[in-house]
């Protein structure tokens, strides 16, 4: 009689010694009652055949998770094993390799599967897969190396533009003649407004003060010091207002130049390369590990070369940023993305103020034209010539009712 399964996690025999399970005796059970309660119900019907029950060794939830991972790979078990051993980057994604590592067979599961004497086809999907990949030495370590190999291009492609934007933005800020000319005008305006106060007679100012120009409103509340600055430059030195075109890298640096994240990504690259080197050195050149080791060595050579390029590039970018900050009497410890975001915000505010000033000037011009048109119309009405053929009451301007 077939009974329903109790999906417990079986402990391998070799682990029972010196545990509570060692020496526990089985107690008599109520066979009849258990058979009545837990026998497998008959499902065979006329014209139908019952589907054979798969042998289950893994916990149901775990077996289901393994099956989900495998369904996303679309390869046979042997093809998965072969791709892992060949370190084939064209077959897997980062997510699929991460899933394989997360649900790799444990030592207990391997022992239970080794003790299995039945047909492989009688096992569940996850168990069949485990039978194949559990023969790969250091499977989890290999999958960890594989995941890093797949993530490496993504890490590098993220770090390169961040470093480049930081160095470019620092250089542009230091060499922008128009930006420095703008600072000269702002210093002059600020010293005039602050004359006679503790804030007056300044030799310089922190660049985050630029974004406070929009907060200083005119007496009538209709304008700001920022808009006056734009007005002044448009009338005295309009070329200076082109400074945002000289600072194009600043916007990129504001988004990307996070030194903490750049260092974290480079640390991850260094750690991953070291693990790959250590694992490659520990591999025994057997029939299965030989190709994996040679492919891993090729990757380590590639990654080491990239690191040799990125590390000095980061040092140059950091030095360029610190030099620029000292040039403007700013604190070099200020996070680059924070400083660049402030400058970029000011550049955008200048552009917006120019547009607003232009709009207001056009509105004022239209208003003047309307006033002038009304004045001319009124003047024509007063001085309109009187035609001699008009009746007397029309010539006098009076109407007869």
- Average pLDDT, to the nearest integer? 82
* Structural class determined from secondary elements: mainly alpha
Overall geometric form:
elongated
Largest β-sheet summary = none
Number of helices: 14
Helix content: 55-70%
Report the end-to-end length measured between terminal Cα atoms: 122 Å
Order of helices and strands: HHHHHHHHHHHHHH
Radius of gyration equals 40 Å
Secondary structure: number of strands: 0
Strand content: under 5%
What ranges have pLDDT less than 50 throughout 5 or more consecutive residues? Answer: none
Structure in words:
This protein is mainly α and 401 residues long. Helices cover 61% and strands 0% of the residues. It has 14 helices and no strands. The chain has helices at 31-38, 60-71, 77-85, 94-102, 107-114, 125-133, 139-175, 177-193, 225-236, 248-256, 259-282, 289-327, 336-382, 392-395. The protein is elongated, with a radius of gyration of 40 Å. The model has no long low-confidence stretch (mean pLDDT 82).
List the helices and strands and how they pair.
Blueprint: H1 31-38, H2 60-71, H3 77-85, H4 94-102, H5 107-114, H6 125-133, H7 139-175, H8 177-193, H9 225-236, H10 248-256, H11 259-282, H12 289-327, H13 336-382, H14 392-395
Helix pairs in contact: 3-6, 4-7, 7-10, 7-11, 7-12, 9-13, 10-13, 11-12
Characteristic key phrases:
single chain, mainly alpha
């Amino acid at each position: 009689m077939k009974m329903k399964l109790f999906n417990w996690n079986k402990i391998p025999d070799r682990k029972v010694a010196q545990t509570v399970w060692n020496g526990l005796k089985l107690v008599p059970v109520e066979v009849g009652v258990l058979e009545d309660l837990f026998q497998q119900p008959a499902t065979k019907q006329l014209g139908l055949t019952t589907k054979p029950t798969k042998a289950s060794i893994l916990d149901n939830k775990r077996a289901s998770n393994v099956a989900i991972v495998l369904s996303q790979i679309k390869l046979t078990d042997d093809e998965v094993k072969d791709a892992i051993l060949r370190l084939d980057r064209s077959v897997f994604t980062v997510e699929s390799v991460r899933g394989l590592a997360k649900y790799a067979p444990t030592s207990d599961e391997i022992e239970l599967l080794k003790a299995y004497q039945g047909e492989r086809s009688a096992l569940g999907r996850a168990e069949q897969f485990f039978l194949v990949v559990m023969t790969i030495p250091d499977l989890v370590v290999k999958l960890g190396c594989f995941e890093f190999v797949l993530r490496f291009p993504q890490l590098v492609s993220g770090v390169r533009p961040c470093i480049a934007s930081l160095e470019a933005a620092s250089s542009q800020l230091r060499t922008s003649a128009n930006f420095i000319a703008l600072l000269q005008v702002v210093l002059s305006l600020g010293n005039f407004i602050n004359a006679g106060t503790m804030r007056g007679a300044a030799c310089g100012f922190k660049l985050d003060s630029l974004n406070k120009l929009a907060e200083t409103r005119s007496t009538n509340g209709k304008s700001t010091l920022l808009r006056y600055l734009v007005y002044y430059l448009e009338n005295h030195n309009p070329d200076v207002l082109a400074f945002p075109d000289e600072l194009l890298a600043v916007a990129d640096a504001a988004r990307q130049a996070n030194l903490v994240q750049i260092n974290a990504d480079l640390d991850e690259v260094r750690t991953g390369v070291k693990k790959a080197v250590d694992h490659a050195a520990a591999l025994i050149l057997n029939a299965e590990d030989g190709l994996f080791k040679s492919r891993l060595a090729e990757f380590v050579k590639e990654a080491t070369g990239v690191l040799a390029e990125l590390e000095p590039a980061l040092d140059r970018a950091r030095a360029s940023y610190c030099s620029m900050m000292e040039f403007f009497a700013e604190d070099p410890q200020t996070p680059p993305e924070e400083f660049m975001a402030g400058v970029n915000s000011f550049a955008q505010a200048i552009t917006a103020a120019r547009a607003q000033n232009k709009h207001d000037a056009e509105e004022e011009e239209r208003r003047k034209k309307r006033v002038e048109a009304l004045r001319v119309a009124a003047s024509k009405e007063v001085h309109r010539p009187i035609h001699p053929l008009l009746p007397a009451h029309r010539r006098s301007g009076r109407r007869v009712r």
